[in-house]
Amino acid sequence: MIFLSFAVRNLRRHWFRSLLSVIGIVIGVAAIASLGIMGNSINLLAANLISNVGDTIVVTPHTAVGGTFAGDPRTAVDATLSSRQVDEIRRAASPNRVIPVLQGADEVEFGRGESGYAQIIGLDPEDIPILLDVAAGEYRENQPGALVGTNLAREYDLAPGSRITIGGTDLRVAGVLAERGFAVDINPDYAIVVTEDWYTGHFGTRSGNGYAIAIIRVGDIGEIDAVKEAVETQLNRREDVVDIIDSRDVLGQYQEIYAQITVFLIEIGGISLLVAVVNILNVMYIAVTERVSEIGIMRSIGVLRRDILKIFLYEAAILGATGSAVGGAISAVAGYAASVAAVEVFTAGTTFGEGFAVFNPAAVGFIVFGMVFGIGTSILAGLYPAWKAAHLLPVEAMRHA
Questions:
Q1: Which of the ends of the chain has fewer CB neighbours closer than 10 A, N or C?
Q2: Rg (CA), the chain
Q3: CA end-to-end span of the chain, whole Å?
């Protein structure tokens, strides 16, 4: 304990220099932990936003850019599936249900002089209740009208019975769809869903001659890989005609992307901490230089090398522990605030961010990791100065007295 008290005394004697070292550790630990918490929150949020459609396979026209992530703008080309290709998909996926989807966009008037372009989705009336849930109103196969995405309805104050005009054609809102979030198949929250007949009658050839995607609903989840292989064999025999994915593929892509983002953010925080560690190394080296005579006196009265080593390592550990403790507390607050802000940005206009838990075992793990890393690197930074102090020869050290 006497050597620990020596270390505390020495740090107090040079309190301003010690304070600057502690501040550096605080910034580094807080950066590592808070950025790690934010990256982890974004990763979990992305997984939550991908709707649970584990029984769904999506077939899309093959694009020139392959092996990318879902939503890559380079894949947004004007390509469609023909009716013949949809029939081939049905044969390959039988007896599972195949739902072809028409997608386009048109100017929509919502009343009160408000208008804008919105996505229009065309589906077979029998497929609508299988693929989508209605939150308000009702939808019957033989009843004319449109289903409006929940976010679009919320933004323009639409309800069952409201009137909208799509490209000059008046249409009644039959119902408002339940919030679905980002799904591997279709994302109707900001879209308008109409029947396939209405879609083709309204757009004609303006939206192309085929379907944007074909959705396969697999009855037995265990057969997903077998169905994907059957479609692959049927349509991609000679060349790649279609791309085939399921929610596992999309979730894996996003998890990989956001895991890399988390690592990148932690590395940024690590750079800040390394700067602080260099500062501690400098401070400890200066301390050894200033206290050569003191070290010589202690060595001459019988203080062992390992005891001299302990004094300087204690000083480095105290600086690291103090800075890490304060940095850990700050990171909890900063990480929470940054994560909440990120969740609000990613879920703007939706309810998916409500009740999202920022703090979880992984978040606590980042705080602990940051603190342990801060203490460990501080001790490592003090090793060389401590070793140099412990190996000073008493006679040479006494010359500075």
A1: N
A2: 32
A3: 26
- Sequence-ordered list of residues with C-beta below 8 angstroms from that of 2, at least 6 positions apart, any chain: none
Phi, psi of 36 (to 5 degrees): -65, -40
- Residue 207: per-residue pLDDT: 46
**Token pair for 391:** 């190996």
In this structure, what token pair is assigned to residue 8?
């505390």
Farthest-apart Cα atoms in the chain, separation? 103
Residue with tokens 């979880």: 360
> Measured on CA atoms in the order 385, 391, 396, 399, is the torsion positive or negative?
positive
Examine residue 144 and say whether the peptide bond preceding it is cis (omega within 30 degrees of 0).
Answer: no
Tell me the per-residue pLDDT of 88-106, one tens digit each, with 9 for 90 and over: 999 999 999 999 999 988 9
**At which residue do the structure tokens 């020596």 appear?**
6
Distance of CA 93 to CAs 100, 127, 128, 186, 396, Å? 13, 16, 19, 19, 86
Tell me what percent of the chain is helix, strand and coil, each rounded to the nearest 5: 55, 15, 25
pLDDT digits (tens, 9 = 90+) for 113-142: 788 899 999 999 999 988 888 988 877 776
Q: What pTM, to 2 d.p., does this model score?
A: 0.62
C-alpha dihedral (385, 389, 393, 395), degrees to nearest 10: 120
**Measured between alpha carbons, how far is 200 from 206 in angstroms, rounded to an integer?**
9
Mean of all residue pLDDT scores within the chain = 81
